[in-house]
Design goal:
Elements: H1 3-27, H2 37-44, H3 48-51, H4 58-83, H5 90-104, H6 106-118, H7 123-146, H8 153-171, H9 179-205
Helix pairs in contact: 1-2, 1-4, 1-6, 4-5, 4-7, 5-9, 7-8, 8-9
Amino acid sequence: MSVLTEMKIKERRDRKDLIIDAAERVFSTRPFNRVSMREIAGEAGIAPSSIYTYFPNQEALFVEATIRDSNLLIEEIGGIVEGTRSGRPVLDRVIDSFIEFISRHDSYFRMMVVFMTIGSLSPESLKKLNDVVRRGFRVFEAAFKKMGYRGNSRILAYHIFAMLNGILVTYRKLPGRDDEKIIAHMKRVAKVFRDLLQSKIRKDRQ
């Protein structure tokens, strides 16, 4: 591959990321079907026609943004699970990483909250998102298996995913506290649920 070709590929990737970043900021305030491509273009500082070079419509852009950041989260947590030896406190590290990631990617989380409460997607888009969600559940399942759990780890994965998102929705914008104190509080709350899960795992081993 020539240097010129590599430069063009990098330029296209950078422009695409610029559009996705802008879209996340706009989508975090309201559903994607109430956002125009012109608004996203204005947020990105580019011509509206440029967006259509990369994305046919708002829904495709919403899905791409969601998948991009979801993959980053899955890769981060997956690396923790793979790099933790059996018998080590893998669940603590997964919980901390999940909370810290969402806290660093606030627009992504707010966008997802808007969608989960009032959004709708086409069957094709839902399939793409369901695929990445299933990958996320498999990472949580791998964490429970590393802890020695031999029961239905998928159910536990559902529970911990719902629990973490519930904590983030409830406490992420807690009034009167700075980000570091909020993150520390969310981790403490999550560890209460962790204790319950670990108690179930020990019980099921008996």
